[in-house]
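As agreed, record passed on underneath.
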Amino acid sequence: MRLHQLKIDYAAEQDRMLMLIAASEQVEVRMWLTRRFVKLLWPLLVKLAEEASPRIRTQPNPEARKALLSIEHEQAVSKANFLQPYDDSTRATPLGAEPLLLARIQTGHDPNGHPVVAVHPAEGQGVTLTLDPVLLHSVCRLLQAAVKKSEWDMELKLPGVEPHEVPERAGRTIN
C-alpha cells in the first residue's frame, strides 16, 4: 500500500493523539498515541532523521550535525503540504473501526537504507511505515504540533531545530 495522507491530532476527551493513515487503496488505519508512547517514539524518530542523511551521519562535529539536521529538516518540511485538509471520506478499516492503542515500536531500515518504523498494539497487527525524508520530517512536525495542543508539559525538539507551528487552515469570519 502507498501512503496517501497522514493526520495526527490531539483528542482532549481521550487525552491521546489520534493518528490517521490513509492509503491510496481507500484504506485507513486509526491509532491512538498515548503520552508515554510519544515519549518513546520521539527519540527514535530523531535518531532515524540523523541516520537517514549521510551528510549528518558522517559529520564528526556535534554542532555541525545539529546544523545539518536543521537544514535538512527545513528542506524536507518545505516539500510537504500541510495546508491540504485530511480527506475524511469513507474508507475500509482493515485493522478495525476503533483506533489501535499503540504499545510497541520497532525501528530499522529497509534494504534500500530508508528508515522504517513499525508500530503495534500490545497484541495483534500494527503498521509498518517506510519513511522518505519528507515523510519522516513531516511526521516529526505533525507530532510537535499535536503535542503543543495537548498541554502534556513536554516539548518535542529536533537538535538544532527551532520548533515551528504547522499552519492551520484559515477560519472563516462570519459577520
Q: What stands out?
A: The longest helix spans residues 35-52. Residues 51 and 57 are 5 Å apart (CA to CA). The longest strand covers residues 100-109. Residues 3-150 form one domain.
